[in-house]
Amino acid sequence: MDIQIENLTKVYGAQKAVDDISFNVKTGEVLGFLGPNGAGKTTTMKAITSFLAPNNGIIRIGNVSVFDDPDTTKSYIGYLPENNPLYPEMPVIDYLRFVAQLQGIPKDGIRDRILDMVKVCGLEGEKHKKIGELSKGYQQRVGLAQALIHDPEVLILDEPTSGLDPNQIVEIRELIKKIGREKTVILSSHILAEVEATCDRIMIINNGKIVADGTSEELRRRSQGREMLKVTIEDGERNEVYQALQSLASVEMVDFASDTKAAFEVQSKPEQSSRRAIFKLCIENDWYLTELTPVETKLEDVFRQLTMN
Amino acid sequence: MKKVWIIARRELSAFFDSLMAYIMLVLFLGFSGFFTWLYGSDIFFVGQASLQAFFSIAYWTLFFFIPALTMRLLAEEKRSGTIELLLTKPVNDWQVVVGKFFSTLILIAIALALTLPYYITVANIGNIDHGAVWTGYLGLLLMSASYISIGLFSSSISNNQIVGFLLALFIGIFFHIIFGVLAGNFTGVAGQIFNYLDLSTHFESISRGVIDTADLVYFLSIVFIGLILSESVLTKRNVVD
After folding, report:
1. Is residue B156 part of a domain?
2. For chain B, what is the domain count?
3. What are the tens digits of pLDDT across the range B27-38?
4. B124: distance to nearest CA of chain A, Å?
5. Superfamily the domain A3-214 falls into
6. Is residue B190 part of a domain?
7. Which of chain A's residues have a Cβ under 8 Å away from the Cβ of B14?
8. A52 CB near a chain B CB, below 8 Å?
9. Boundaries of every domain in chain A
């Protein structure tokens, strides 16, 4: 089920939390929302789940507007809010039954769905405990279980892996990926590695505006623009090598790398590669080329570059 | 309607899970039983088979207990953020408000049902006016519904339970006493208006055995106004990112 968002704007007092953003998410796509705190990720999610009415804009889920028919669109969505609010005094099973009933699952199907969710989310040993007695990781699983209980077409997860241990994070990521093959998933996170590992598409939001949108490779390439190489050349005199590298036609700039004596950082001119030229240079001068690695821009760098003002 | 019932049932089980329901039942039965049977101008003192003594005690105990029950209904959900979880399910604000209202009303009805042995006992002692007893219970139920509705509204105002409790008592005291006192102090139209607003006038006329439409309209209007105000407070949510 596709999600279409057009010109969404939400204002809190004088501050624009979300400023005229538009995007689509297609079925089978996992979209990762990235952005610093207060960028508008949570507000956008709250608007999609019709918890908050935006000041302006249109949101459609599978061609149904969330303003015209919220009961229908809400039943398409499985939502895990930020901080995972739960009723601490309720036993896990009772809570899942309550959510299943609210989601309108037929009476005879509720038991099976609850048992399914208990299995999928690994709550087997905890199902009769009160939610308040569970550890944070298990509470997070309960939050995920309630979001998934009606087998939703759209899954919206606000920081789904916070509070989980590394093993659980891997499990949850696998689960999200699996669900994302057939369903539409939007998740937000502060953890860049997580977004990179789980999402097909990444959207970076800053100050209520979309500043980048694409796969992680696309984002890296876009911010990088030009080739950056780490080169280590031995047997040559340091300054001589530096001069030779600098004089290559495709090279824009050479820097001494700090870690070893014979290493340099070579930046090529836009749209050009210096790899072949460097190799040839070494042969001509009888130098040993011991390292030639492209330096990848990390997603962290892209993120910082786009969101630091 | 089904959604309302699902919410009411969860809320009711929350009352019992948190022991709140048991404490309330024990205190209510204890208080009303003590003053009805043992202390002051109790049932034996009146010299006739009537539950008037119980009704006037219950009139006061419910006034204090209901805000204690309603104070957490919406305030707690707002504080912990579960309101977001609830309202992003296929239910609307009205269903949530009405569901919570009925949960508390059912609890009060259970408490009142547990006092039916008083009725049976007194009916065995002498000639009791059965009609007056049933309308007395109806009056207590209508009064409770009004205060629950006021309490629900108070609880929706802030995410602090104590604020919800005190505000409910503050609004309630006007209907409970202040309007009645003002009605005695004013003459003419003002006096009539205050007299109409006074809850005890309507309660007494019902518990005497007269069911007047005007009284029913009075109680049901308080209930509806309270519910509508709670819903509009909920709808105007200003969640900070």
Report:
1. yes
2. 1
3. 999 988 888 888
4. 43
5. P-loop containing nucleotide triphosphate hydrolases (3.40.50.300)
6. yes
7. 87, 89-90
8. yes
9. 3-214, 225-297
Domain that holds residue B24: 2-33+49-235
Q: Considering only CB atoms, which chain A residues are within 8 Å of B237? A: 51-52
Residue-wise pLDDT for B85-104, tens only, equals 999 999 989 999 999 999 99
pLDDT along chain A (309 residues), means of 10: 88 84 89 85 89 87 87 90 89 92 90 90 86 88 90 89 80 84 87 83 87 81 72 82 82 75 79 82 86 76 73
B44 located within any domain: no
Best residue in A48, A67, A89, A144 for a mutation probing chain B (most B CBs within 10 Å):
A89
- Cβ(B223)–Cβ(B79) below 8 Å: no
Minimal CA separation from B93 to chain A, in Å: 10
Instruction: State the Cα–Cα distance between residues A213 and A34, nearest whole angstrom.
Output: 10
SS3 label, residue B33: helix
Q: Phi and psi dihedrals of A264, rounded to 5?
A: -135, 155
Does residue B231 belong to any structural domain of this protein? yes
| B17, B81, B90: residue with CB nearest A90 | B17
Placement of tokens 């009146």 in the chain: B46
Task: State the architecture of A225-297 in CATH terms.
Answer: 2-Layer Sandwich (3.30)
DSSP designation for A40: S
Domains A3-214 and A225-297 share a fold: no
| Contacts A50 to B, Cβ<8 Å | 88
Which backbone phi and psi does B42 adopt, to 5 degrees? -80, -175
Q: Which residues of B touch A103 (CB under 8 A)?
A: 89-90
B93 to chain A: which residues are within 8 Å by CB? none
Question: How far does A217 lie from chain B, in Å, by closest CA?
Answer: 30
Contact B90 A38 (CB under 8 A): no
Residue A28 CB partners (closer than 8 Å, separation 6+): A180, A181, A182, A183, A184
Residue A136 has phi, psi (to 5 degrees) of: -60, -40
